[in-house]
Structures are given as C-alpha cells and as structure tokens.
Specification:
Length: 396
C-alpha cells in the first residue's frame, strides 16, 4: 500500500537526519523520572478516591500541573549538559522537591495544599535558575529562556494563595494559574531553543512507559494477593489492553515522529517539540492514567458490571489516549490516523454498553477495538514500519 506522501517522508534520510551517537537519556535523568513514577501512582489514588465529575476534573488539573513540572526539566536537560556540577546538584535538589510534591498529591487541594504549593514552587524556581545559568554562554538561547521565564516564576508563586482560598475555589484558581503558566512557550515562542531530537523523543517515550507502568501496578493491586478464576482472566485481558496501548504508541508513529523531528530546521524543530510533545503528550498521559484507574476496578470485580464512573475511566481513558495519539501523528506528519480515531470513537461508545455487560465482556470489546486498530495500522503503514526498523547505516 502506498504511504501518505508526508508521512512516508519521515522515513527519508537527509542531511538533517539525527546523527548516529546522539546523546541519550542519562542515569541522572532516569533518577529524576523515578520520582514521577511515584507521582503518577499518587495521581491514581487522588482520582480513585473520588470517581465523580469533580474528581476527574481535579485529577486532570493536578496531573497537568505535575506534567508541566516534568516537561520543564525535560527541556532543560535536553538543552543544558548535566556534566556541570551546579546543574547536576540543582537537578538532584529538584528531584527531592518533586518527591515532596508527589507526597502531597492525594490531598493537593485540601489538607496538604501548603506542602504541595511550597515544594512545587521550589521545583519551578530551580528549573528557571538552572536554565538561566546553563545558557549563560549562548545569548540567543538565554534570551529566549528569559522571555518565557516570568510566568514560569509568577504562576507557581501565585499558587501560595491557594491555602487561604475556600476549598471550592482552589481547583478553578489552580486551573487559571496553570493556563497562564503553560501559555508562555506558545505566546513568547521557543524558536531559539535547541532540541536534540533523539534525546527529546526518548525522554517522552520513557514517560509514556512510566505511565503505562502504573497500569501494570493497578492491575496487580486490583487482583489482590490470591487471584483465581475470573480474576486471572481479567488480569490477562487488562494486560493485553496495556500491551495494545503500548503498541499503538511505539510500533510506527513514535519512530516516524522522531525522524521528522530530526529532519526539521532548528526553529521548526523547537515548535514541533513544543506542540506535539509538551502539549499533546499530556492528552496521551491523561488517557493512560484514566485507563489505569479503570483497570483496577475491572480486575477487582470482573464478573460484575462496572460502575458508571469506573467504566468512564476505562473506556474514556482509552479513547482519550487514542485521540492524543492521532493528534500527535497529525501535528508531526500532517496525516490523519483514521484507525486510531475510529478506535477512539468505538471505545467512547462502549461507555453506553457498560451498564449492560460484565467488566470482562467490556474489556474484551475494548481489546477487539484496539486490536482492530493495530491491524489496520499495520496494513496501512507496513512499509514505513519496516523502514523505521532498519538501522540508519542500512537505509543509507
């Protein structure tokens, strides 16, 4: 089958292709990311404790806040070398502060709001300070950093008002502050920020793996200590669903997107990194978190009908993930992933089916939708998948 022209072009080598041996994720970055393994686990506890519309909204905003702290450091460590002792010490300090943020997540907007706000402000302040310090020898990059830095400090600082606000006002206040914070790279631009494409794409891929790992944890915790019978079948189905989500991200488009990032010029590369990774990947991550919460309920009560909220978490989580993946593909390649959009619509429609079937049957239907999407993608993009699998030296 002939590939869409723009999508196929991502597999074509040119002078801008990522150089062999480009910097990859360092042990320090992996250590930093480990803190966010715990933060994602805490996010699941936060949402699972209140499976209501308000609870989902609270989870979405708090997750976005955590996500934004992480991506700030993903950009920092992509632009600034970690061999500098000051930068290394600062990243370690930020990891410690991030751990305190993660501890506060389940009660981030009630009893632990002061700890959440204080630790979060330290994380963001360290990010700006390290960015300004690390770019001191590159005036153009430093100028771009300083242009986006004000909201990176002011928005987190504004969160110190949260403990003094009535509890019902805290969520909308955090949402508005986050919008102001996240708008800065879009309003001020990121054209002068260098992006190492292989390293950058790998960091985000690893975060997706971290989030999928929470699904595995949720499956295990839902199964209990002595799984048997229907529970084991539910565990198997939930694991298959997790594998299919992993497949959707890593089989074709993620690799093609990395190559597209490598082929872009400096300014376009930074813009693509901002849009497709910084913003759109949040949709992917949020979908996985919702899916993980639904998996826990699925495995805990496999022969019962899922409560409406749990069915929404499971089915809408999968739909949101697939929608995010389709948006990611479109932004990077300007092609439409019809298979993922169709599977997203089918997954969302299963919310209406959930009250009439068991949790096991619902999981089976989701697996059929995801499996069909994977098969469709493989047939449509088989040639590109084979090209992506080849080493650069063979393709040249």
């Amino acid at each position: 089958m002939q590939l869409p022209r723009r999508f196929a072009a991502t597999a074509v080598d040119d002078e801008a292709e990522v150089a062999v041996g480009e910097e990859r994720t360092t042990p320090l970055e992996l250590l930093f990311d480990l803190v966010f393994v715990y933060a994602i686990t805490q996010m699941s506890h936060l949402v699972a404790a209140d499976l209501t519309l308000e609870g989902f909204a609270r989870g979405a905003v708090v997750l976005a806040t955590i996500w934004y702290a992480w991506i700030c450091f993903a950009w920092l460590t992509n632009n600034v070398g970690l061999d500098d002792e000051v930068v290394r010490a600062g990243v370690l300090a930020a990891a410690g502060a991030s751990f305190l943020v993660a501890l506060a997540v389940p009660h981030a907007l009630d009893t632990e709001v002061l700890l959440f706000v204080s630790a979060y402000f330290v994380v963001r302040l360290l990010h700006v300070a390290l960015y300004v310090y690390g770019t001191r020898r590159d005036p153009a990059v430093r100028r771009n950093v300083l242009a986006i830095a004000p909201t990176f400090v002011l928005a987190p600082a504004a969160l110190f008002a949260l403990p003094w606000l009535p509890e019902e006002w805290r969520l909308p206040y955090l949402f508005v502050a986050l919008l102001l914070d996240a708008s800065s790279p879009y309003v001020s631009g990121v054209a002068e920020l260098p992006v190492k494409p292989a390293h950058f794409a790998e960091r985000f891929a690893l975060f997706v793996i971290i989030t999928l790992g929470e699904s595995i944890v949720s499956i295990g915790s839902g199964a209990g200590s002595h799984p048997h019978g229907a529970v084991l079948l539910a565990v198997a189905l939930a694991f298959v669903l997790t594998v299919l989500l992993w497949w959707a991200y890593f089989d074709v488009v993620a690799t093609a997107a990395e190559r597209r990032l490598g082929r872009a010029g400096r300014a376009e590369r930074a813009t693509l990194a901002r849009d497709a990774y910084t913003y759109i990947h949040y949709v992917i991550v949020a979908g996985i978190v919702g899916f993980a919460i639904g998996c826990r309920e699925l495995v805990a009560h496999p022969t019962h009908r899922l409560p409406t909220a749990a069915a929404v978490a499971l089915c809408a989580g999968v739909a949101l993930y697939l929608l995010g993946h389709a948006l990611f593909r479109f932004r990077m390649t300007r092609t439409i992933g019809r298979h993922h959009l169709t599977a997203a619509a089918a997954s969302a429609a299963l919310i209406l089916v959930a009250p009439h079937v068991s949790a096991l049957a619902l999981a089976g239907l989701l697996a059929l939708a995801l499996g069909a999407a994977a098969t469709w993608e493989r047939l449509e993009l088989g040639d590109l998948r084979r090209q992506n699998a080849q080493p650069l030296t063979e393709r040249q």
